[in-house]
Amino acid sequence: xxxxxxxxxxxxxxxxxxxxxxxxxxxxxxxxxxxxxxxxxxxxxxxxxxxxxxxxxxxxxxxxxxxxxxxxxxxxxxxxxxxxxxxxxxxxxxxxxxxxxxxxxxxxxxxxxxxxxxxxxxxxxxxxxxxxxxxxxxxxxxxxxxxxxxxxxxxxxxxxxxxxxxxxxxxxxxxxxxxxxxxxxxxxxxxxxxxxxxxxxxxxxxxxxxxxxxxxxxxxxxxxxxxxxxxxxxxxxxxxxxxxxxxxxxxxxxxxxxxxxxxxxxxxxxxxxxxxxxxxxxxxxxxxxxxxxxxxxxxxxxxxxxxxxxxxxxxxxxxxxxxxxxxxxxxxxxxxxxxxxxxxxxxxxxxxxxxxxxxxxxxxxxxxxxxxxxxxxxxxxxxxxxxxxxxxxxxxxxxxxxxxxxxxxxxxxxxxxxxx
Amino acid sequence: xxxxxxxxxxxxxxxxxxxxxxxxxxxxxxxxxxxxxxxxxxxxxxxxxxxxxxxxxxxxxxxxxxxxxxxxxxxxxxxxxxxxxxxxxxxxxxxxxxxxxxxxxxxxxxxxxxxxxxxxxxxxxxxxxxxxxxxxxxxxxxxxxxxxxxxxxxxxxxxxxxxxxxxxxxxxxxxxxxxxxxxxxxxxxxxxxxxxxxxxxxxxxxxxxxxxxxxxxxxxxxxxxxxxxxxxxxxxxxxxxxxxxxxxxxxxxxxxxxxxxxxxxxxxxxxxxxxxxxxxxxxxxxxxxxxxxxxxxxxxxxxxxxxxxxxxxxxxxxxxxxxxxxxxxxxxxxxxxxxxxxxxxxxxxxxxxxxxxxxxxxxxxxxxxxxxxxxxxxxxxxxxxxxxxxxxxxxxxxxxxxxxxxxxxxxxxxxxxxxx
Lengths: 420, 420
Known about the structure:
Number of domains of chain A: 2
Organism (chains A, B): Candidatus Terrybacteria bacterium RIFCSPHIGHO2_01_FULL_43_35
Oligomer: homodimer
Distance between the termini of chain A: 25 Å
Strand content of chain A: 25-35%
Number of helices of chain A: 12
Number of strands of chain A: 23
CATH topology of the largest domain in chain A: BirA Bifunctional Protein, domain 2
Largest sheet of chain A: 9 strands, mixed
CATH architecture of the largest domain in chain A: 2-Layer Sandwich
CATH superfamily of the largest domain in chain A: Bira Bifunctional Protein, Domain 2
Enzyme class (chains A, B): ligase
Radius of gyration of chain A: 25 Å
Pfam families (chains A, B): HGTP_anticodon (PF03129), tRNA-synt_2b (PF00587)
GO molecular function, one term (chains A, B): ATP binding
Shape of chain A: elongated
Protein name (chains A, B): Proline--tRNA ligase
CATH class of the largest domain in chain A: Alpha Beta
Helix content of chain A: 25-40%
């Protein structure tokens, strides 16, 4: 893709209210555009990176036997009343009337909807377990949106729901989902760890949050480095300074929440009529779990872990392109060589952003550092003279000269490593 | 995918209010679930078919140089006021206040948002043209939702917007987009033809609708079979019975609208400040076009063209699976053979729904006809005895016996044909 045709315009300055690194750099490198406080567009660069993230999430959800569907965002009041949450969610859910004076809410979460869908299709223990997920725009009436994609009024989420005949089966799937989450974070280049948390408006039971250690985090987590026990501050208010398991000293960390998984028990299945006949023919409510992961939030969290003062340093698995190809100088031979290399790489399935713009070398280098594509390739009079190209990884300092054939092999090997 | 694990439950009856074939069959075969009038979930079968449709649309959009982004659904009142459409869209757009008493609307279309995005990034004729599209849930306060996915309060749409320096450049892209639409419809197995139409709330200019001839259509179109002139009833009110071009007799058709493309001129660019400097350094408003295609609506339209009294007959390009594999009988050898074939086909990248359920052969055949996967493969005692499998295309009457090797080759050839 020629950068002169690509819809992205980098900026030297970011708005004053942008404090978090991800907010600043995603705006400056033109991954996102702010429409209003907490409301953003994913521009072509952002859309590409987000789609790569979604591909990883879908693969890991499918691998644990979850099936994808897509539920609506417009929810009639009645179904939220049957769970008793229409009133509870006032102030957090956008609620309004259509022109026929019927009330609707914009779904901030989908327990009611999914439970009704499963209730009308599952009748026997033989139909269970069921695990269904969606990737969808979500809406929350957030009074204080902040930090760009981190906390908004509209955002994208992967939400998974599971239904089980027994607590053992639920526990088994809960563990599988937890492991899938850890694999997702690892493949996205961030290290997350599960901590005990409270369930907020969802449940009174203990839940599990997945936290990423970053400077832009908003939660305090207590961690016992000795035995691995971890909990958020709310849970551990009574813990003082010692681990409740091994009695060793715990330490405080600022970390960012990236996912949250819940044991919902039979709360929703009882209220929405999701019953089944067990092996003895006895009518039982299904046992439920729900598993949330904010995908636009995770995109921002990845940047919080991978940046330096010059800009973003994407992990290869998420970068919008694999290679940033810079042609320096006006000589036609340079352009011809760059185009030949671009064509060759693309034929191998390697994504290339080719900077063909008529601007200075300094501006091209600065943009490449800001946008953060993992491998930078430079073609200039100097490299042409040597019959080589210059390559440099965004995360490394040293550049080196390689032949065109070597470049292709390196790029193919990098791509293979990410895909396998 | 084993059907015993797949989340879909077919029904013998459809709701009384379901009149259109697509509405009836998509409900009965469990592609969709109705939450409220005009509000549906895409269940796993529906999600799979819809994703295949989106892949085709993305390929054709990318091929004409359009780039994908994703805009928000929550729009602040101010931006709709700058175009003068906040009042115009009352009654059609859901409009409400957040808890800070700020007004928002749920975007039924995105001219205002995209124009503001482009305005802040394009300054010179050198930056033009720009073509951007998104695939996104849309909301319209529809008083009389009907026919399932055909006309709803919430639906999914591909909307493309283009920005140009000259009318010639706009015309050129408008024709390219029009051809891309025709390719999309063809690849989805429906024949669409462009007709002249009015612009509704969008524009006073003439526009182009893409109509599909179906029994479930809601618009009358006049067509001149002689010279090819075509227009919708509204436009052609003055035409009486003769073509305005060649004076031959025109005929009336009930057809379904599947896409709509507009010349917006400089209406939005002037109001939202999307100006550029032309070659002479003169400030000019950009010339705009917009190009809509309802993707969930198109999914229904495809069914309207491809069904018989037993159910859906998907085109290969859209079907949720390529092959429906039916194992008949309880003999373990039948199951072993079916599983071996499923594994073999999947290794070749062929999507298989394997009906391993403990129900009668009659029920399996009826479900296969209803769900509408293009190729049915049966393994039974009879086929095992002959060392063969029975295959039958959904659109053909005759079944025939082939060897396992022949089946693989046939399935691979079918898949290749669709992909190229």
